Structure formats: C-alpha cells, structure tokens
Amino acid sequence: MTVTTIAGRDVHVDAEGFLTEYDEWDDELATRLAGQIGIDLTDAHRRIIAALREDYRQHGETATLRRVTTLTGVPTRELFALFPKKPAKKMAYVAGLPKPRGCV
Amino acid sequence: MTTTTTAATAPTVVPDFDADTGRKLAIICSKGTLDMAYPGLVLANAALGEGVETHLFFTFWGFDIITRSRMGALKFTPLGNTATHLPQGLGGLPGMTALATHQLRRQIADIGVPEVPEFLAQIVASGGHLWACRMSADLMHLTEDDLYEEVEGIISATDFIEKTDGAQLLFI
User: Fold this and answer.
1) Domain span including residue B127
2) Complex ipTM, two decimals?
3) Which residues are CB-neighbours of A28 under 8 A, at least 6 positions away?
4) A103 catalytic residue (yes or no)
5) B-chain residues within 8 Å CB-CB of A77?
C-alpha cells in the first residue's frame, strides 16, 4: 500500500495505482483519475461511476461489466465506447474501487 | 507508465490500460453441450474485456451454440462425465439429462452468467467475431438463415486460420 498525491491530496493506492480507500474518493479525484487514463468525464460516465460505487458500498465487490449493464441499463457497446478497450478496469479505476473479481 | 513525483509521497502510478499489445485470441468451439459451451464464451468475454481481438470458430458439435433452433436448449448429461461424482448407472436413467440440464442452467443463472444466446450477444457487443465452419454447415445442411444473426459468415478452416494469423489459440 502506497500513499501518493493526486489532485493535491494524499490518497492510498495499490501497486497498480487503484485507490484502496473507498472514502478517499470524490468527484474531483474521479475527474483527475479519468484524465490520467485519457478519459474526459461526462455525465454519462459519472452516472455509471456512481452506480458502480453504490453497488460496491452495498455488496463490497466491484461490479463486472455485465453487472454494470444490468444495474444501469447502459448497453455493453456503450460501456466500451465510454471506457474503451478495458471498460471494467477503467471504470473501477475512475470509481476508486478495486478491479472486479468476477469472471462474467 | 506515467509518473509524476511530489516531495512527500510516492510517485503516482497510472495503469497503462491502452498499450496496444496487438494480442489476438482464436477460440475453436467444437462441443455442443451446455457445460462445454460456456468455457469458450467466458474466455472470449474475458479477453474482450481486456481489449484482446477475439474470434470464435464454431465447428462440429459446437455448431449447436450458434444454431438458432438449438442454441437456447443446449443440454448437459452426467453420463460419461465422472466429474459429476454420481454413479454412472444413474446418468442413463430416463430424465436424468433433463434434470441435470435444468440444475446446471439454474446454477449458471444464479451466479449472474447469461444464457447462451444472450452471452453471444454480449460477446458481439464487446467487439467479438463469430464464425461458422463451412464443413459443419455442409455436413448438417445448414445455411446462414439457420444461424444466429450475428455470425459474420460461414467460412472454411483455411479462412479462419488466415483471419487469426498470429493469434493465440484455444481448442475447446
């Protein structure tokens, strides 16, 4: 576990750079995290991130891509458009959550 | 990896999600039972989620996975499958295949994994490519009209090998 500085504040991250403390995240940080991986956050992104965080709060586990589609009604294609290439990991990163553990 | 350094804390590590590795995966699905359909679909889905270009080739019994009249009704039998740890004689009893299929289908649904047709749709939506085997189509007298609409084409084994040049390959 490492402490690093993002958006002018100290946060805990793992070896890959994913935030490890749920409560250290906020919208400003999300914007910065997204920017670091080349994503300009829009409301569409934010709605998904909010759903992901809420689901994690309730279940203690990061939603897989399929679960995100089920939770938000956002189709798979659109998730790939908003978070290209590795949507599940990118969403988790921006949401300040661990990588999803599930297979599907 | 991009790093920025600040005085008091460790450098910020940013995951490199977009590195173009050029990785390709070819999955040959040759079995049409419920339990043998899923491994290929799960792995294809995982690869696509990692940005890997993925092609699935459905051949022989695997053709059932993309045949419209059968794809929603794949079966599972304990007969000849010692991994179920049931007495083998039991597997041959009337109704056992239906029972085992029902049970497995429910277990799959319980863990949030979609049924085969929906799973294929998800794979296609994630950018996956579905191909049907020419020889199997000829053998079973099936045409594109009989197949799941997202199958990109009925192609020869040679065509598939060409399309997946440089790919890692899984035969299931």
Assistant:
1) 24-75+90-171
2) 0.89
3) A7
4) yes
5) 125-126
